[in-house]
Amino acid sequence: MTTTEKKLRIGRIEFTNAWPVFYHFPVQKLANSVEFVSQVPTGLNRALAAGEIDMSAISSFSYGENFRDYVLFPDLSVSAYGHVNSLLLFHKKPLEQLKNGRFALPTTSATTTNLLKIIMNKKYGGNPTYSYAPPVLEDMMKDNDAALLIGDHAIKANWQDSGYTVTDLGQEWKEWTGHWMSFAVWAVRKDTIERSPELVKSIFDGFVESKRKSLEDLTGVINEAVLKIGGTESYWEHYFRNLCYEFGPEQWSGLELYYRYAWELGFLPEEVSIQIWSDNTRVRVTE
Predict the structure, then answer these.
(1) What pLDDT is attached to residue 286?
(2) d(Cα 272, Cα 66) in Å, to the nearest integer?
(3) DSSP-derived pairing of the beta strands 55-59 and 181-189
(4) N- or C-end of the chain: fewer Cβ atoms within 10 A?
(5) pLDDT for residue 170 is more than 90
(6) Do 169 and 185 lie in a common domain?
(7) What is the DSSP string of 131-189?
(8) Is the pLDDT reported for residue 56 higher than 50?
(9) Is 32 left (phi over 0), alpha (psi -120 to 50) or beta?
């Protein structure tokens, strides 16, 4: 780091689904150049948009809101082609019967709440009433027909026999569209790239290497999940292996469809183009 550069602030998602990308990151090697900020996705979304942090794992929807200011790292995401196991809708009746029902949403992420709205509108032709609530399942269901939970809250709630029907939104999206869905992406502010291109590359390399090491041997990540969240080693082995941490053309295509639907429904003010970082250049992804 040169004297003209300041430390880059990197946002770290607190949810376990992103742990493999962070677990082996060379913190000590870059200790004088970076600092981490840990929050739930909505907090990181806001901080990156405000320029309070320089790069972050964020909700995919937040990139759609701020794509003119960001580029995305390739090869890094939290994606799924089907079941995610931590983006779960708990409901009292089949979704076909809840087209105009009452849905409780968490305040911790933007991507999945809008994915639910897209599915209910585009697939089921519905227009439910949505309200936000703390992520406590029984409280959310008191006056609602369905409740969405994400991340570790969804995992823990699903370990209990609540008696509700549980729909995995990743599987719902795949069955409906045939596409991948990327729930979190790694975004960098364009002004950060212009200011510190070499450091940005070092950070990217660190994340890719961390992902590689984690997926090569998940023992450390699994043990930490059991210690901090609970559950069994076999559960977490399946959970992490089921997720995809790549971000290439298949994932881009699914995300483009998601953004198009979000724009058509008025959730985004304009059509979104995906721009991918490549050393010091940006490559626009087109359909």
Answers:
(1) 45
(2) 9
(3) antiparallel
(4) C
(5) yes
(6) no
(7) EE--S-HHHHHSS-SEEEEEHHHHHHHHHS--SSEEEEHHHHHHHHH---EEEEEEEEE
(8) yes
(9) alpha
| Domain span at 279 | 8-79+181-285
Cα R_g (the chain), whole angstroms: 19
* 161 pLDDT above the threshold of 70: yes
Provide the greatest CA pair distance for the chain: 62
pLDDT at res. 156: 92
CATH number for the domain spanning 53: value is 3.40.190.10
Tell me the three state secondary structure of residue 89: strand
Same domain, 173 and 191: no
- Mean pLDDT estimate for the chain: 93
In percent, the amount of the chain with pLDDT more than 90 equals 87
CB atoms within 10 A of CB 180: 26
Show the tokens assigned to 263: 């724009």
**Same domain, residue pair 186 and 59:** yes
* Residue 120, phi then psi, degrees to nearest 5: -65, -35
Q: Contact 40/106 with Cβ under 8 angstroms?
A: no
- CA dihedral in degrees (147, 153, 158, 159; nearest 10)? -150
pTM, to two decimals: 0.92
Side by side, which strands form the sheet with 165-168? 129-132, 102-105, 146-150, 87-91, 165-168
φ/ψ of residue 131, rounded to 5:
-140, 155
Amino acid identity for residue 172 in this structure: E
3-state secondary structure of 47: helix
CA distance 211 to 220: 13
Q: How far is CA 99 from CA 95, 102, 121, 128, in A?
A: 7, 9, 8, 6
Bridge-based pairing state of the strands 8-13 and 146-150: unpaired
pLDDT the model gives residue 2: 46
